């Protein structure tokens, strides 16, 4: 069936370490039933199992995904949630708790209108608005991150207008009680895989508005114009129209690559 069943990477300096290996198994319909991966973590030279994924299907539809490796370095999942995957009558996925996707709601065009996430105590909601033809015209995200003294709710509204993209962002801090300007680390921002820090003010509720609706960028024949950075971005695209490399000039006139996708 011309299916990939295994792949091996050997370090030239230590070819017997088998630092990165991958093997796959399939059912008769070509669906992946098992994915096994090993990798070196944290600069070690000994390979560690990072994935041992078991796929369960019903009518060629994935209904469960379990990682028996017990290692979060590979497949990232919220371990306290179910690994089941559910669908509606139209075949749209309605939730995947193992990835923190608690609910997906759809409109009459079967387009997602609201997605509710829970990344281990950090709720995140993303809502979408479309035109009658299904073109997305607006996205609203609301995220809440709690610290040791307060919680911060960030609302971002993105408007799409014929290639022009506008953003309005508002942050509300609830709680406080610390010293003015005190910085404290927040829970891990799971969607970015980074730690974030905010300034806590002594007021119980502080609203911080970052400008009015701001133009972010608009398309050009060669790429797009980054309005926030006052910079033209040029893109090399493949035969399918995907941008593989995007580059522009810095304020000093030096060329720099701002994005690359060599997949």
From TrEMBL:
It comes from the Bacteria. Gene3D superfamilies: RHS repeat-associated core. This is RHS repeat-associated core domain-containing protein. The lineage of its organism: Bacteria, Pseudomonadati, Bacteroidota, Flavobacteriia, Flavobacteriales.
